[in-house]
Amino acid sequence: MGERIGVYPGTFDPIHNGHTDVIRRATLLVDRLLIAVAVNAGKDPLFTVEERTRMVEADVRGLIARNATNGARIEVHPFESLLVRFAEQHGANMIIRGLRAVSDFEYEFQMAANNKRIAPAIETVFLMASETVQFISSRFVKEIHLLGGDVSSFVSPQVLQELDRKRGRTARPR
């Protein structure tokens, strides 16, 4: 069968505990996991692709330090090409997508069908969000943080520092 290589794509603006939950669980399915950080300027990201890539790398190091990667090798790459082309270039045979709610399914289903048409050898695998993180989204993290809410239970300490830095905060309110 060969090496099982999966791609977990996203904007990761910013990466949050829902993303890291999918990453951890995806490592049960693959030998090598490529986390593909999309440029995706159409979403008007708060963080640059370089900042997002660094935050993802830091959170992955945290998973590795906690021995939570099930022996899978993890790489983080920025990308701005068609996802299936990125997957093909890296020898991936699987795209991993997280689903939080039924509302995610229709879009993801259409994307998976289009990807299958373009690259029939690449399968899309959906992982349902764990119940403890299914309500988290990057959009809500940014909005709650902007309005002064506490997002420390949604993101890693490193990401919280980056959010504070980006928003010009020096100390966390307690």
Notable characteristics:
alpha/beta; 41% helix; 174 residues; 6 helices; single chain; five-stranded parallel β-sheet
What does it look like?
There is one protein chain. With about 170 residues, the chain is α/β, with parallel strands linked by helices. The protein has a single domain, classed as Rossmann fold, CATH 3.40.50.620. It is built from six helices and five strands. The chain has helices spanning about 15-25, 50-65, 85-90, 100-120, 140-145, 155-165; strands at about 5-10, 30-40, 75-80, 95-100, 125-130. It has a five-stranded parallel sheet with strand order 3-2-1-4-5, with helices on both faces. Strand 1, helix 1 and strand 2 (about 30-40) form a beta-alpha-beta unit. It is globular. The model has no long low-confidence stretch (mean pLDDT about 90).
What value does the average pLDDT take?
92
Which stretches are poorly predicted, pLDDT < 50 over at least 5 residues?
Answer: none
State the helicity in percent bands.
40-55%
Q: How far apart are the first and last residues' alpha carbons, in Å?
A: 52 Å
Which architecture would the CATH scheme give at its second level?
3-Layer(aba) Sandwich
Please give the domain count.
1
Overall 3D form = globular
Radius of gyration (CA) equals 16 Å
> What is the CATH homologous superfamily assignment?
HUPs
Strand content: 15-25%
* Major pleated sheet: 5 strands, parallel
What's the total count of β strands? 5
- Helical region count? 6
CATH topology descriptor: Rossmann fold
CATH class: Alpha Beta
Strand order of the largest sheet: 3-2-1-4-5
